[in-house]
Amino acid sequence: QCPRCMQCDTKFDFITRKHHCRRCGKCFCDKCCSKKVPLPRMCFVDPVRQCAECALVSQKETEFYDKQLKVLMNGATFFVTLGTSDKPELMVCRLSNNQRYLVLDGDSHYEIEVMQISTVQILTEGFTPGGGNSRAVGMLLQYKVPGSEELRQMKFMACEDLSCNKKLSGSWLAAMHKVRKGGKATQGE
């Protein structure tokens, strides 16, 4: 049904065969559909043929599932300040197993539905005007309270003491930043 490559418009014949991208289903010549990339979300066990555009998306998905998602689900420890309170609480923050909630456990327990999060601002230190390196040290999170339009804010700061793994907290913040950049637009970044 498809006489020409949908990318470069090369005509298919006995020598120039058509191939289907396993992700988008469009027809391409070998040159335009030569990447073989894993596609586990569509139940392909081995890497499969994909067009260049789909291969890039699949690689980003794989990186997300292999790196950021695991870090977020394992969690990290932060000093969490709710709203305008001036007393932070030491809490473990992680993404729930079903990936729908941000779960905070300490003396208190909070679950924030990810869909209710309106803004994420990563707090950094060490930035210099000349473009020097900065590192994530905390996060401001705004979210809606279910059944209301009220916005609440939480501040997360990485621990400085020996009982906390500061590197793990930094990795968790970096993963959260990557996830939010790829999802909804955020303010204040």
Mind explaining what this structure looks like?
The chain has 189 residues and is an alpha+beta fold. It has 2 domains: 19-66, 2-Layer Sandwich (Herpes Virus-1); 75-160 and 167-176, PH-domain like (Roll), CATH 2.30.29.160. The protein has 2 helices and 11 strands. It has helices at 52-74, 166-182, and strands spanning 19-20, 27-28, 35-39, 44-50, 76-82, 89-95, 101-105, 109-113, 117-125, 135-144, 151-158. A 7-stranded antiparallel beta sheet has the order 8-7-6-5-11-10-9. It starts with 18 loop residues before the first strand and ends in a 7-residue tail after the last helix. InterPro entries: FYVE-type_Zinc_Finger, ZFYVE21_C, ZFYVE21_C_sf, Znf_FYVE, Znf_FYVE-rel, Znf_FYVE_PHD, Znf_RING/FYVE/PHD. This is ZFY21 protein. Keywords: Metal-binding, Zinc, Zinc-finger. Residues 1-54 form the FYVE-type domain.
Q: What topology emerges from the helices and strands here?
A:
Blueprint: E1 19-20, E2 27-28, E3 35-39, E4 44-50, H1 52-74, E5 76-82, E6 89-95, E7 101-105, E8 109-113, E9 117-125, E10 135-144, E11 151-158, H2 166-182
Antiparallel strand pairs: 1-2, 3-4, 5-6, 5-11, 6-7, 7-8, 9-10, 10-11
